[in-house]
Amino acid sequence: MNRKSFVLILIILLALSLVLSGCGQKEKPADQGTEKVEQKEVEKWPTRPITIIVGFNAGGGMDVMSRAIAPELTKFLGVDVIVQNMPGAGSGTAAEYVLKQPADGYTLFAASSAISTFPAMANSDATYKNLGMLAIPIIAEPAFQVPKDSPYKDMNDLIEAWKKGGTTGANTGVGGLWHIPQLLAVDEVGGEVTYVPYPSGKEAALSVAKGEVDWGTSGALMESGEFFKEGLSRPLAIFNDKPYNVPGYGDIPPITDFIPELKDKIVAGAGWRGLAYKQGIPQERLEKLYEAIEHAFQTESVKKFLSDTGLIPGTYYRAEADKAYELTSRIQSWLLYDLGVSKRSPEEVGVPRP
Amino acid sequence: MIHIGEILSQLFSLYGIFIMSLGVTVGILGGALPGVSTTMTVALVATGTYTMEPLWAITFLAATQVGSTYGGSIAATVLNIPGTPSAAATAIEGYPLTRKGEAAKALSVNVISSFFGNTIGAILLVITLPFMLKLSMKFGPWELFWFAIFGVVICAKLSRANFVKGLIASSLGLFLAMIGIDPIWGTHRFTFDILYLTDGIPLIPAMVGLYGMSEVFTSLTDHKVEPIFFKEAKLFQFNEWAKYKILSLRAALLGFIIGVIPGVGANIASWVGYDHAYSTSKQPEQFGKGSIEGLVGSESANNACVPGAYAPLLVLGVPGDAVTAIILGVLVVHGVQPGPTFLRSNPDFLYQIALAIIFSGILFLIIGTFIGRGIIKLLVTPLPAIMATVTLLCVIGSYAISFRIEDVYLMFIFGILGMSMKKFDFPIAPLILGLILGGTLGDANFRRSIIAGKGSFLPFITRPISLVMVIMLVIVLFFEFVYPLLRKKKQSKEV
Question: Among A180, A345, B54, B122, which residue is least crowded by beta carbons within 10 Å?
Fold first, then answer.
């Protein structure tokens, strides 16, 4: 009797653990060698599920975006589009994985602008030369902000303080998403500041609200919007060339009103979210993927997601997206290398100076 | 306007009870599987909640989290492998009880302590939330650093049996926590250009190896392992728990406070609760040999921590731990942005969460008792079968975290390390605690404090909460290490 119930429990446990470990990766490309990616007259594609690899944990910004668009891609392409999380090395692990898969279009990579720092930070050898960008549909909204009782009344005051030196500014870590717009802006005005890294944009925003730092940079709506509305901190400028509206708070003026020279560097500095693929996919399949993603961002459900989360829709599709990735990559990786933040010269992986 | 009646009728609908039972059961099983942590269980079920109503999604996730936090104690007690990191302290007392044949008693005390801690935590969440915004604004990296130092003191206290070996183990833990990209400057530390090491030593594979795999290796080399038996016992051991109800309450309070502080989670709460039980016990000699008090302390604290972690999520929109971070992500998909203004316009949200946590507690009290009773039956099986299963679970558990085969290799390496430590009588607990405290809590917050303080060390003692923590630390250190020495001197003089 005991033996019998033990076997039963064992089977249940094993089944459960197999299911649990299988949940994340439902589809493994098993037929790497067998499938020939030759072009036929009219190829029926796709015929099996497509996997979107997310280089961050479930619940993060990239994960949320991928899960919002996956159902629409599924509807358009007629096969399941599965989201799989593969966290590690600031999405470098995921990038390496994607590069090892066959260039058949069945594996996509939800890439944030963080991949633009890889040539310098060496998390992965992925560059714009081996990764193509289907689209950059979302531009981030970093806001420069100060505590409620800060002596800096507007962005000009803060710029003056940068020039004088000695202020502390919160961000998400060296080479992190919100460090880049700070570096670009401070560099442009010739300032000198001390950066205080926090584990997430939310915590950076909170440190400003608590008055731990003199100023900081965080996402205007999702990360700091509640603090603006509550009057705990004040936004001074948004890293964009257009004003940004926080519902329930009001408009934040664009940084280009104060530092017009940044106009050409907005895409490279603000941070973005895109969908990438390993280069070498047959042109017809690429065309289909282009159409699918453009369609997904026209649907009501994705539009609602964008307005709920306050994300700025991007306008970079197809070749435009590749160009934006290249520009971001060259500006960001050289910026980090020149500052001595990273060891590897971007030239080692063939990324020239901007 | 708060609609308690409406929330209650929703929760007690057929759907509500189904959702919560499902969450609790999945949670307990996920928590009980070695290597499948609470964070991972919640992350896996989270993918199924994107189509639910936001309130149901959060109810389901909270039920899973609550169930899993308890579930971790089952494997800790029965197999000496903590199912989740937050059950590591439970293993120290639970497993010796199992060896004595009292697994049934231990599991029942676990489930009742967890239930009690969980309920107290949820009630405290509702009562204290209005004051939480002001309080949490006073917590910065300085306070978090002192918190890590408290953890190091607990490491030392856990090593009382053999101080030198304990310190070696905790130093090793702290050192291992330094591996990877440093959280302040992004410098690679001890990574030797290996991509895998840039994220540091992952906690779960390390823990699964140290506790689970080492047990397998030990049983391979040590042929004298006695078969385990178990005595039949009452299903619900309320009397055993009731002896320590005041301890349970104090541990729950501590656990809740730890949950409230962002960045410090149930993994640390269980140690603090365990240490509190040890420090206040009248029978400290029982600790390490199967002390019910130790179980009560650890399990009350880690379950009270769960509701606590919702406080920063609700008042600031900042997750209190890794699990609430996932829940925040789910809320974002649903277009809900928690924070002070959101809470003011949706006061029901707090009550829905608190009541869901309380009722999930009642469900796991019942479901958990029966699942625990079923799992005890494992114990009568021959050792080779148990160890083969454990090996399999260890491999699956460490692989499933992020689908990296290197995690499995690491698990085996830590298995060998754990076996060697056991052979030479080094305690494993300080190593694990050192690994938890080292990088993101201790090191990062110390350096962040210095940078944010513009190079000044003064805020460490001039900030009000910091000052209180320093005074507490001095008192603890005095009574723990200096006072016994003085007393010894005095005694020897008298002699």
Answer: A345
Cα distance between residue A296 and residue A319, in whole Å: 18
E-only strand ranges, B347-478: none
Phi/psi zone of residue B277: left (φ > 0), alpha (ψ -120 to 50 degrees), beta?
A: alpha
Q: Inter-chain contact A21–B44, Cβ cutoff 8 Å? A: no
Q: Are A168 and A193 in contact (CB under 8 A)?
A: yes
CA–CA separation, B105 and B113 (whole Å) = 12
Same-domain check for residues A217 and A77: no
Among the listed residues B418, B434, B421, B417, the one whose alpha carbon sits nearest the alpha carbon of residue B155: B434
Find the domain containing A161 and state its range.
Answer: 142-268
Listed residue (B214, B146, B261, B153) closest to B390, CA to CA: B214
Give backbone dihedrals phi and psi of A299, rounded to 5 degrees, phi first. Answer: -75, 155
Closest Cα partner for B92 from B160, B158, B177? B158
What is the C-alpha separation between B219 and A351, in angstroms, rounded?
Answer: 55
In which residue are the tokens 């500052």 written?
Answer: A339
Measured between alpha carbons, how far is B104 from B88 in angstroms, rounded to an integer?
Answer: 19
Q: How many domains does chain A have?
A: 2
Q: Are residues A53 and A79 in the same domain?
A: yes
Q: How far is CA A345 from CA A120, A122, A134, B197, B343, in A?
A: 6, 9, 27, 21, 48
Q: Which of A216, A240, A268 is the last residue of a domain?
A: A268
What is the Cα B425 distance to its own chain's centre? 24
Asked whether residue A20 is assigned to any structural domain, the reply reads no
Residue where a domain terminates, one of A240, A268, A296: A268
Q: State which residue of chain A sits closest to B372, comparing Cα positions.
A: A9
CA atoms of B349 and B51, how far apart (whole Å): 19
Cβ of A222 within 8 Å of Cβ of B325? The answer is no
Q: What is the pLDDT of residues A37-92, one digit of tens each?
A: 444 456 788 999 999 999 887 767 788 889 889 999 999 999 999 888 887 777 88
Q: Is residue A150 part of a domain?
A: yes
Query: Among all chains, which residue has been given the structure tokens 């083969």?
Result: B388
Q: Are residues A109 and A130 in the same domain?
A: yes
Shortest distance between the Cα of A348 and any Cα of chain B, in A, equals: 16
Q: Tell me, what CATH number does A221's domain have?
A: 3.40.190.10
Q: Looking at A166-180, A282-296, B228-242, B291-305, which range is the least confident one? A: B228-242
In sequence order, the β-bridge partners of residue A246 are: A250
Q: Do A248 and B341 touch (CB under 8 A)?
A: yes
Residue type at A317?
A: Y
Residues of chain B positioned with their CB less than 8 A from the CB of A341: 185-186
In a shared domain, residues A220 and A288: no
Kindly determine whether residue B141 and residue A212, on different chains, have CB atoms separated by under 8 Å: yes
The answer to whether A6 contacts B378, with C-beta atoms less than 8 Å apart, is yes
- Residue A101, classed as helix, strand or coil, is coil
A67 within a domain of the structure (yes/no): yes
Give yes or no: residues A181 and A257 share one domain.
yes
Q: What is the CATH number of the domain that holds A110?
A: 3.40.190.150
Please, are residues B304 and B256 in contact by the beta-carbon 8 Å criterion?
yes
Q: What are the counts of helices (DSSP H) followed by strands (DSSP E) for chain B? A: 24, 2
The separation between CA B173 and the C-alpha centre of its own chain, rounded to angstroms, equals 17
**Euclidean distance between CA atoms B292 and B287, whole angstroms:** 9
pLDDT digits (tens, 9 = 90+) for B92-126: 999 999 888 888 899 999 999 999 999 999 999 99
Rounded CA separation B145/B473 (Å): 12
Please state the ipTM of this predicted complex: 0.83
Chain A hits for B373, CB-CB cut-off 8 Å, are none
CA distance A333 to A122: 10
Q: Which residue has the tokens 């895998």?
A: B196
DSSP A184-243: HHHHHHT--EEEEE-SSHHHHHHHHHHTSSSEEEEETTTTTHHHHHHTSEEEEEESSSS-
User: What is the Cα–Cα distance from B112 to A115, expressed in whole angstroms?
Assistant: 48
- Same structural domain, A126 and A233: no
